[in-house]
Hints:
The chain is an all-alpha fold. The protein has two domains: 21-130, no CATH class; 138-257. The chain contains ten helices and no strands. It has helices at 21-25, 32-56, 61-77, 92-105, 142-168, 172-188, 195-202, 207-230, 236-249, 251-257.
Amino acid sequence: xxxxxxxxxxxxxxxxxxxxxxxxxxxxxxxxxxxxxxxxxxxxxxxxxxxxxxxxxxxxxxxxxxxxxxxxxxxxxxxxxxxxxxxxxxxxxxxxxxxxxxxxxxxxxxxxxxxxxxxxxxxxxxxxxxxxxxxxxxxxxxxxxxxxxxxxxxxxxxxxxxxxxxxxxxxxxxxxxxxxxxxxxxxxxxxxxxxxxxxxxxxxxxxxxxxxxxxxxxxxxxxxxxxxxxxxxxxxxxxxxxxxxxxxxxxxxxxxxx
Length: 258
C-alpha cells in the first residue's frame, strides 16, 4: 500500500467499545437494531486491519474500501456471521479473518471494482488514514499486515485510556513522565530524556521518585492492555499468544513496558 493512499471509512475520533465473545454470544436473532449496532461496533474495531489486509493482498485503495464494506454488509450482516461465531476458535480476529478469506474466494474479479455500499448505510463511513507501514512489512504476508494494523490500533486505544485514567486520578505528571521518558522516544526514535532532566522539568525532588511514578503508569498500561486482550479471546492462554504477537511487531514497546 502506498503511503499517500487515503481512505475515510469508519469515523474519526470515535469512542471504541469493548468487543468480546460474551457480547457476541448474546446476539439475539430477533433484535435487528441491536445486531446492527453490534456490527457497527465491529466495523469500527476491525475495518482497519481488514482494509490493510486487502491492500497487502494486492487490491487497490478503492477496491479494498469496497470489499471492506461488502464484507461487513454481505457476510457479517446478511449472512449472520456473528450469530454463527464459534467461540472455540479462541481469537475473534482469527475467526473474522477466515470468514474474510472465504468471502474473497466468492468475489469475482469484476465485482471488486463495483461499489458495495448498502442502501441503508451500516455505519457512518468516514475512515481515518490507515497506519504507516514500517519497511519490514512492505514485503510481509497479508496476515502480518492484518495483525500489525490490529495491534497498532489496539495500542493506540490502550494508551488513550491510560492517559485519561491518569488525568482522572490526578496523576497527570505521572503520565507526562511516562510520555516523555518512554512513549515519545519510541515513537519519534530519539534518545530518552534523562531522569535528572525530568526532575528539573516537573519540579520533582529526586530521580528515584521519577522512576517510581513511571512504573505506576507502566503497570496501568500492562493491566489495561491485558484486559483488552482478554476481551477478544476465550482464555489466558490466548492472551499470552497475543502478547507474543505484540512483542513480534513492536519489540521496543514490549521491552520497555514489560
